[in-house]
Amino acid sequence: MHLILANPRGFCAGVRMAIDVVDQVIGLFPDETIYVYHEIVHNRHVVGRFVRRGVIFVESLAEVPSGGIVVFSAHGISPAVRQEARERGLTAIDATCPLVTKVHAEAVRYARQGYQILLVGHKNHQEIVGTLGEAPDVTQVVERPQDIPSLTILDPEKLVYLTQTTLSTDDAAVIINALKAAFPKIKEPPSSDICYATTNRQTAVRQIGPECDLVIVIGSKNSSNSVRLTEIAENIGVPARLMDDASELDWGWFPTGNERVLLTAGASAPEDLVAETCRMLLGRFGGTIEQRDIFDEDVEFAPPGALRRIMEEKGIDPQSRRFRAVTPTITGDLYGAVPLTVSAGKGA
Ligand code: SF4
Hints:
There is one protein chain. This protein is an alpha/beta fold. The chain folds into 3 domains: 2-12 and 195-298 and 325-344, Cobalt-precorrin-4 Transmethylase, domain 1; 13-97, Rossmann fold (3-Layer(aba) Sandwich); 99-182, 4-hydroxy-3-methylbut-2-enyl diphosphate reductase, catalytic domain (Cobalt-precorrin-4 Transmethylase, domain 1, 3-Layer(aba) Sandwich), CATH 3.40.1010.20. The chain has helices at 13-28, 44-51, 79-87, 98-112, 126-132, 169-182, 196-208, 224-235, 271-285, 305-313, 332-335, and strands at residues 2-7, 34-37, 56-58, 69-72, 91-94, 116-120, 139-142, 159-163, 214-218, 240-243, 260-265, 288-293, 300-301, 323-324, 339-344. A 6-stranded parallel β-sheet has the order 10-9-11-1-12-15, sandwiched between helices. Helix 4 (98-112) packs parallel to helix 5. The two termini are 26 Å apart. Iron/sulfur cluster is lined by residues 12-15, 74, 97, 99-100, 165-166, 195, 197-198, 225, 267.
């Protein structure tokens, strides 16, 4: 079997920052219960590991006792939730990814300028719920081109579209083209709202997938960007499987054991789950690993303001903590084999 590890894969800067925020809040308040509003990131293992450390995940702020400590997840929240936290006297630390915050800011700005906003994304996803909450009176969600005829448009010349950060670039292009066909004067966001991490992981699958028999995506079923990676693979005609971890491997997927398999991971999936999958596959079938570098990522985000203030109050220099996505080192012990090659296909 030949395993190709897509690079980049797994944790993005926003997820790394959000996880580190919870990690640090646990350390800063060792005697307090830490609450997190929604899953901090959409990954069963990440959430489970925090639950085992005593963190309580809630779907409503009413579940957090007055005066308690709450972290808002990476997907963002509506202003109404922020207001509720203030009214309840909660210590709130916002781990929203700055790239989600950017879309919120665009929604606020366009609404102030009198635009109607068409928000392309999945209606029930927490990110869309949060962005919609910035300008609910002038925003409509578009999930599919079929939604377009039922939109209520007051002035087709005062219209802008924004998107969820984790959409499939393929699907988004179809919806955006349909919007442009229906409303030729529709304004675009100043830069793509689909984030760098989503775009890079999808591009890697699009580039490497065609030379593989199967694409395995490590990620949870409720992780939008992980699901999108399987769709990108299927769009180029390569079968794809989404799994939380190696326990979901099915040997029937590998009829010869000599397959070429592309392994990638959604932006919220920890790398140790990728390594475990490699160990399992190579332990059963033998073979080699190659890491394929498509993009270097060096994006990093500073801790959120509320956490920086708490750290300063406790005499900790917030600048000493920067969150960075680092390309994992492949070791034989962890992955079952060292890479044959680290080969390029950079910057498609
Ligand atoms: S996937 Fe993109 S928007 Fe979402 S947390 Fe990561 S960097 Fe931020």
